[in-house]
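Blinded run. Sample ID left blank on purpose so nobody reads anything into the name before looking at the predicted structure. Input follows.
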Amino acid sequence: MFDENEYCGYILKGDLVGALHYVKQFPEQIALYQRYMAIFDKEQYLNYAIDEPLNAMLRAYKQYYRDVFYLRLDRAAAEDRLRAKLAALLHITDGNISLDDIEQEAVAGEFQRRGFHFLGGKTGGYYGPYVWITTESRTYDVELPDGVQSYTVKLLDGFIMKSWLDYLSFGKVSTGGWTDADGIINCVKTSYDFDSENFRVSLLKHEAQHARDLALQPDMSSALLEYRAKLVELIYSVERNLLAQFVREADSSDDSNGHSAAAHRIVSDYCNLLDKTSDELGMLPIERVQEVAKSLFDKSSCTSDSLPE
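Blinded prediction complete.
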């Protein structure tokens, strides 16, 4: 039977080709497979309800997604093609300008002038913008292993694009939030029920742990940041078996995808400590999952380079 969790596991690892091979096995998923073929094979891109100059820039990102995830073009080459397309659309003639500078200095400005918020850069090792309309600020007191602290949370709404995870999965998998350089937690408002453990733990505690770690150690590696934040999720989750989810997400082949790499390290640590296979981890009692997570978290706090291998 088709397993949506297995399908989503491929997407989380950026393995679109693997996801397509998996989906293609199931006749009842023919519509989903055909939708993928229309967009990624035939390049039948849909436009958004925005003006053509903005659609053209977002189309360049969609072509980048096709290059890097479907055609499996070398990542640097795919990024260079994206840079060249955006530079041409924006009439930038400086051949030495970086893709990051184009996003920050030109693309963001074009969206902002039309009333949109734009966030560029990389998520999990790949480019892909977040474009939205409204922002609302709230304050939450968040309990973490090292104490309780207040954090500002910005609730973002009216999204046009939510980076590559959302695009590859047609909205099934998406980044629900992130922490910015000022320690403010940004939350995709429609991704959460604010009364749920998913919001309280996987958004607030996960991102608050990022903010706390970066405030204390600004140069902490992304691998260690994600490792510690995921352990915090395991420490506080009682309603969901997140360890089983991390098993599906785990991937050691791409260090730039911090979430998948951290999930792989967590799974490896659990297997080594408990002398179990990854398939057995999903059957652990929640209390045992929490106990091991707390032990691993405490160990990771010792030194900046203490992430278990």
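Unblinding after everyone has recorded impressions. The first strand starts at residue 117 and ends at 119.
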